[in-house]
Design brief:
Elements (H helix, E strand, L loop, with lengths): L2 E6 L14 E2 L2 E2 H9 L7 E5 L3 H9 L19 H13 L7 E5 L8 H13 L4 E7 L10 E3 L5 E3 L17 E11 H6 L8 E5 L11 H15 L1
Parallel strand pairs: 1-4, 1-5, 6-10
Antiparallel strand pairs: 2-3, 5-9, 6-9, 7-8
Length: about 230
């Protein structure tokens, strides 16, 4: 199976200026993902998709392939991910280069490892899933089977639609949320079904320490603290 590793990294971050190449304990944030992805046994090609010259320059210094510059209309604050992936696939299709799937690797989740990337891809390849996402278990206190919503009449009802409340923590079904670490999707689903997920979604649970997702300065500080604790 030919799998394209795609690292999206646009410029213009407002919450953490220059985030994608800002130095995190001496290394550009981008480098953490590059260093983890390059040794993968399953990625046929690894590329950057960016609109930003400074990010592109750093990527080239890291020997990361940058086959194109992403159009600015695909690099806005509200630009969805799917068209960014489709743009990359269409670029290669025009050169008669084809991939069976795309593995999306977010720069803002810097603590994924090569082993975990390959474990996720291996699981995806062994299933008939349209996609695979990395997840974290939802803590019991936030489990949707214990979540309520107003019903419009000054009363509450279970979000799950169940009539009876599950009283024992031990009886709660396991539930998960996406952590943004890795997305893997078949090319056919991305291009022909216009979906990042398709109808059959597989999953792999991420190590807890890998799930730091840097969106804010507070998240950045968590990442710094994690690295310092790891190096002590």
């Amino acid at each position: 199976m030919r799998i394209l590793g795609l690292i999206p990294a646009r410029g213009g971050s407002k919450t953490v200026p220059g985030k994608n190449i800002k130095l995190l304990e001496g290394k550009p944030l981008l480098q953490y993902t590059v260093d983890a992805a390059k040794p993968s046994k399953f990625l046929s090609k690894l590329i950057l998709s960016s609109d930003d010259d400074a990010i592109i320059d750093v990527a080239k210094q890291l020997n990361l392939e940058v086959p194109f510059k992403r159009p600015s209309d695909l690099a806005q604050d509200n630009s969805p991910t799917l068209p960014v992936i489709q743009h990359a696939l269409n670029f290669f299709t025009e050169q008669h280069i084809y991939f069976d799937a795309v593995c999306l690797l977010q720069v803002t989740s810097p603590f994924k490892t090569t082993q975990f990337i390959d474990s996720a891809i291996k699981k995806f390849m062994e299933t008939d899933a349209d996609s695979l996402v990395t997840v974290q278990k939802i803590p019991d206190e936030y489990n949707p089977y214990w979540a309520f919503q107003p019903n419009g009449a000054d009363y509450m009802e279970l979000v799950s639609g169940e009539k009876d409340i599950i009283s024992r923590r031990q009886d709660l079904p396991k539930t998960y949320h996406r952590d943004g670490l890795i997305y893997i999707t078949k090319t056919d689903v991305l291009l022909n079904k216009n979906s990042l997920y398709g109808s059959k979604i597989s999953y792999i649970e991420s190590p807890l320490e890998s799930a730091i997702n840097i969106d804010t300065l507070s998240d950045w500080e968590k990442a710094v603290a994690y690295l310092k604790s790891k190096n002590n």
